[in-house]
Specification:
Layout lengths: L1 H11 L5 H28 L5 H13 L3 H20 L4 H15 L17
Helix pairs in contact: 2-3, 2-4, 3-4, 3-5, 4-5
Length: 122
């Protein structure tokens, strides 16, 4: 439902033509997949102090897809942090996560947050 509202919003309000509209949707799907891959890698790695790195990497990879990927990364990141606030996780940790999210989305190197010793696989 939210995706369809987003598509209608982009099409009507932003005046996205049909070619760019399809590209936006494709990028959003790819960006969502990038975010999921970063999350899965974070869970698999289970490495101390790697959370911010995976936040930055997922947002970076998604944003590299284009405007649709950046949009998907922002929506997913904001939703995740909103859920964490509702469940009582610390506001300070949430701010740090959002900083890493924005760092990655802006195109800055996610390796800035990479902890020493994290396997090169990630």
């Amino acid at each position: 439902m939210k995706l369809s509202i987003g598509i209608v919003f982009c099409f009507l309000i932003l005046g996205v033509d049909s070619q760019r509209w399809w590209s936006f949707v494709k990028e959003a799907g790819q960006g969502t997949r990038d975010m999921w891959r970063a999350y899965s890698d974070m869970k698999e790695a289970n490495y101390k102090n790697s959370d911010k790195y995976f936040h930055a990497r997922g947002n970076y990879d998604a944003a590299q897809r284009g405007p649709g990927g950046a949009w998907a990364a922002k929506v997913i990141s904001d939703a995740r942090e909103g859920i964490q606030r509702l469940t009582g996780h610390g506001a300070e940790d949430s701010r740090a996560d959002q900083f890493a999210n924005e760092w990655g989305r802006s195109g800055k190197d996610p390796n800035h947050f990479r902890p020493a010793g994290l396997p090169s696989k990630y």
